[in-house]
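TOPIC: backbone geometry
CONTENTS: sequence, structure tokens:
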Amino acid sequence: VQLVESGGGLVQAGGSLRLSCAASGIIFSIDTMGWYRQAPGKQRELVAAQTSGGSTNYADSVKGRFTISRDNAKNTMYLQMNSLIPEDTAVYYCKAASRGVNYWGKGTLVTVSS
């Protein structure tokens, strides 16, 4: 499974961005896909995840602001981010879990200015 993120950039606080994660390879075997982020000097943390059955899980810090979704026809996962705050600044990574193996994208940088 190969994952490529896009959609990051610089946005003012209160703005929105939509991240995309395009998957290729043995995609039919993907169980869970998710978004993680890593801010400077901090550990990587879960932002949102979605199982193949559609169940979702969000970090408390993004609940009500971020929405994860998948377009299976396009083999793409999205993260709609609204009401962005400076604390959301980080490199955002896409992850796919398949048969006990985790695959990661290279990340896309999101910078939120105050």
The mean pLDDT is 94.
